[in-house]
Design goal:
The protein has 361 residues and is of the alpha+beta class. It has 14 helices and six strands.
Length: 361
């Protein structure tokens, strides 16, 4: 047992106990390599490959130059099954199925120096989708304990990779559902075609300027994309009316905020954006709807979407009015700071909106 083993094993246990799916595959695999090399210092380098489409790519490596990450190979050696495999001089064994260019790339990063390798597959749905490789430039002795540990690391990497793949598939379904909602809304009201994308683009840029983290930015994007989904419940004779709405008709339109909020009920993965649909017409002076919230009661993400929504509405043509100019719209936002809009969000948005509108008028 090496002198650093207790510290390395303690680090491994802490890492595994605090494993978080928000970690990227690249970060997870690099950490797994760090732990493996610390526990078994007989190896002086290591790497992890994952299959993307029809080719193998390196997602993490230690002890190799960064050129390893540029290699794309159609065929690489991956063990069968869950058990790790010991390979002598892996580069010599691999020459039979590598192209000449791939051989040159591997030689450039020093693969021909390897004398002993332990490899274990990363498996999802009983298929090898990747591999972990610990390499030594010396002819070292491989113990049974080492092989058992590598098998455990392979299983852990397989579980993490499977969960990330399933997570990505679920996100794909979620995106499709959200975009389908938006298309359904735009199909009823041709005047709103492109509105949600512009609102999302404006809102995301304002959020980044305010320094919000990417989790908040992502939430603001998807909330913007379907912020008006509740208008599906507004009768077409009101929604498409070419003249000014009566007070009674306006009350019907105002209900789209509550309807949209209710439409997302029961979907846990949409729970964190429901409030954007409900509150994007609230005002800092308390005269908004549906709840008459005041500035300190309105979430920051809602304040961002509100400015973006208002700006696009002002600068878009409608059957009953012409669009305002950029200067007029920015003046309105500045004038309404502290009344309709949060002062800080309004001030921050001015330069952002001016730049975006100039690029995409």
């Amino acid at each position: 047992m090496n002198e650093y083993s207790e510290e390395a094993i303690s680090s491994a246990i802490n890492f595994f106990e605090n494993l978080n799916l928000r970690m990227s595959v690249e970060d997870f695999m690099r950490k797994l390599l760090e732990i493996s090399l610390a526990i078994f210092p007989i190896f002086d380098r290591g790497s992890v490959i994952i299959r993307h489409g029809g080719e193998w790519r390196y997602v993490a490596w230690i002890g190799y130059p960064d050129e390893l990450g540029e290699i794309r190979a159609t065929n690489l050696y991956i063990p069968d099954g869950e058990n790790p495999v010991v390979v002598d001089r892996i580069m010599e064994m691999s020459r039979g199925f590598l192209t000449r260019r791939e051989i040159e790339q591997f030689e450039k990063v020093g693969s021909e120096l390897l004398k002993k390798t332990v490899a274990v597959a990363i498996r999802v749905d009983n298929k090898a989708v990747g591999g972990i490789f610990l390499d030594s430039t010396k002819d070292v002795h491989i113990t049974d304990d080492l092989l058992k540990a590598m098998k455990a690391f392979g299983k852990l990497a397989s579980i993490f990779t499977a969960m990330k793949l399933y997570q990505e598939r679920e996100r794909g379904y979620q995106r499709e559902i959200i975009l389908a909602m938006r298309k359904a809304m735009e199909a009823r009201d041709p005047h709103t075609v492109g509105h949600s994308e512009r609102v999302a683009r404006y809102a995301v840029s304002i959020a980044k300027k305010l320094g919000l983290d990417m989790k908040e930015v992502d939430k603001i994007y998807w909330g913007s994309i379907i912020h008006d989904i509740g208008k599906l419940a507004v009768p077409e004779q009101i929604l498409l009316k070419p003249t000014k709405l009566s007070p009674e008709e306006y009350e019907v339109v105002k209900r789209h905020t509550i309807v949209g909020y209710s439409m997302l009920e029961g979907y846990p993965w949409l729970e964190n954006i429901r409030h954007i649909l409900r509150s994007h017409h609230e005002r800092c002076d308390g005269n908004g709807y549906p709840d008459g919230l005041r500035c300190d009661e309105i979430p920051l993400d809602v304040k961002v979407v509100s400015v973006a929504d208002a700006f696009d509405a002002m600068t878009s043509h409608r059957a009953y009015r012409k669009a305002l100019s950029l200067e007029q719209a920015l003046h309105e936002i500045e004038k309404e700071a502290g009344k309709q809009f949060d002062p800080e969000v309004a001030r921050t948005s001015l330069s952002v909106l001016e730049e975006l509108f100039d690029k995409n008028p």
